Write a sequence for this structure.
């Protein structure tokens, strides 16, 4: 049986081992490593599909099962012809499994072996997610890549809690695989958990690889732990993942974390960071972070990022964007969102070239020397 | 001395007397009658200049002196090279005089012969607008058409209050004309006031025509009076305005009011209505008003307006736009704003053709029979 997606490893960087590849999907090829913009509610906030394709040059976007299940409801998306049709995006889509959102509801949810009972953050109504239910929702949504139902354990967590949770996540992954019917159209990824404990990470990875998924995610990282620890656990984990399958690090989107992920063999990343900070008035630029909402940019008639090729940077001044953000104008959010996303896709274009040229380590060192700011994440 | 703008009357509709013309401005020609989208804070909410030109096909936009004076401040706009440069709009711009906003502040303002003292709605700081001050601000902003400082009297108002206010508005118009220096780049319009009293309207119009402005606005209508009264006063007023100058009815933007205005010899209209109702989830369509945020559109997979040529109608379903509006997504506001503006510019394109064909009355009758809804304004 033909799998929904396949991964082709083109080159490994001789300096770092970072992977340059292609993921073949029902909606086209994805050049990796890749950053995936997040379209939580069937829209990448403030963007049209045309802008994502022509300006951002996004190859794949992510959308959220939890949010779409609650609103508009997966049945309406299915009636519309699936998520691609509904939101008019004809390139690949990945849906998460809702686990992260459901478990984030803290006092609004109750976990059992069967699944998770939770209350909607919208209206307090009661719902139940099991691995089987999540598969039904993700199949109705119709993304190219779908995620198995997992628990994302926070930091810090005890060994015992993490072990029990990881083992249940593996059992749920097995149930997802058994429930998943549309294997020729949608590729189901397993999610490696295990917190900051290496033996648990190893166990999780090996058990999931045994189940033979078409791709693997690393979950439960960048959840508050120190950066060194994230890098260490990630590097340790990826060694157990097969070379012929794509690897996705969930929820990472600052420039430095993206680079660290790629250095450790990751192919795909996603994060709401670039779109969220845009709406707050912050830009990521080749000159570092620019908090354009600050008064210092009131009379700055230069472009946001002189080295950027995006619509925003080619056309507008910092002073104008500053004004739009201060005045809470939608165009301000649009211009910054477009730029921040393009900044990351350009970074990844560069990263792909550096891997091909066996030069990624040199590039990353230069990045830290010339660019990196401690307070990047806000 | 060459005036900043000139008006060319091309044709008068034999059925109605409605005017088909061209206004020549420093930033290009405007085919009239015309609807002008409002860009209150140096941006037509949610739109880029490219969208306004290519999709909406807007020929001129309006911006607000009061808002730009307070934020970012007219001096910053001037430093940017003027409003056209600041917001990257290379077609004509009209700025109002701030009178409407300042007088709307009710208990925050104090009127004298010299001008109006008011408190900012943003931070409560004190400011003073005189005719001379308003001219300085509008000259710094650099629009092609600027308005003289007036008081817009509400409805109802006493004869005495309206008379005193109208006479002061005329004195202020004279002071504006004397203070206005950039006459070759910017055309200053006088604003006819006089409330619902015909003798005051006649007096106001005649006094302003005596002052010989390059264009005239009719203010103080559509301020709460019955529609019949608006139509009656408007028709009475326009007879006193010269045929070789453009006529602008301020603050009118519902389809039926636009038609009524054109029937009575008006060339230009503006209103925030189409952009404001868009953000609330309402569309104006060839099938009447569509409150797309209502649950009835949850599963409506047809286009917003099957007869519309805009990006929104060519690409998206009502169900998707409904979802975006319910989820408070920026894209929802974008799609509806674009459509609502295009709906009015298309209506005016049609109106221009009907005038040329001496058929406007027939068209308007058909409009009321097939289309009009009492509750249009919301």
């Amino acid at each position: 049986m033909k799998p929904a997606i396949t991964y082709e490893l083109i080159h490994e960087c001789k300096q770092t081992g970072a992977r340059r590849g292609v993921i073949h999907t029902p909606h086209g090829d994805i050049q990796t490593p890749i950053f995936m913009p997040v379209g939580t509610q069937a829209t990448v906030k403030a963007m049209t599909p045309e802008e994502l394709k022509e300006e951002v040059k996004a190859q794949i976007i992510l959308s959220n099962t939890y949010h779409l299940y609650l609103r508009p409801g997966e049945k309406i998306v299915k009636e519309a012809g699936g998520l691609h049709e509904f939101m008019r995006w004809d390139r690949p889509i990945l849906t998460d499994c809702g686990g992260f959102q459901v478990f984030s509801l803290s006092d609004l949810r109750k976990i059992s072996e069967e699944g998770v009972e939770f209350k909607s953050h919208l209206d307090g109504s009661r719902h139940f997610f099991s691995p089987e239910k999540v598969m039904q929702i993700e199949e109705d949504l119709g993304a190219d890549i779908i995620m198995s139902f997992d628990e994302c354990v926070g930091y810090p967590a005890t060994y015992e809690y993490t072990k029990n949770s990881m083992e249940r996540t593996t059992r749920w992954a097995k149930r997802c695989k058994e429930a998943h019917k549309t294997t020729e159209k949608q590729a189901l990824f397993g999610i490696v958990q295990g917190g900051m404990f290496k033996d648990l990470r190893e166990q999780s990875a090996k058990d999931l690889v045994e189940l033979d998924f078409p791709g693997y995610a690393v979950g439960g990282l960048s959840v508050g732990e120190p950066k060194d620890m994230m890098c260490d656990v990630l590097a340790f984990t990826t060694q157990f993942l097969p070379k012929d399958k794509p690897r996705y690090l969930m929820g990472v989107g600052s420039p430095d974390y993206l680079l660290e992920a790629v250095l450790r063999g990751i192919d795909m990343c996603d994060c709401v960071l670039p779109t969220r900070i845009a709406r707050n008035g912050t830009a990521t630029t080749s000159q570092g972070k620019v908090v354009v909402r600050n008064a210092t940019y009131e009379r700055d008639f230069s472009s946001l990022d002189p080295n950027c090729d995006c619509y925003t940077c080619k056309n507008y001044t910092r002073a104008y964007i500053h004004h739009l953000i201060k005045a809470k104008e939608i165009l301000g959010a649009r211009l910054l969102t477009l730029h921040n996303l393009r900044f990351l896709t350009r970074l990844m274009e560069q990263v792909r070239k550096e891997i091909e040229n066996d030069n990624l380590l040199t590039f990353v060192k230069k990045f830290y020397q010339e660019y990196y700011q401690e307070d990047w994440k806000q």
Remarks:
- Chain A has 15 helices and 16 strands.
- The mean pLDDT of chain A is 96.
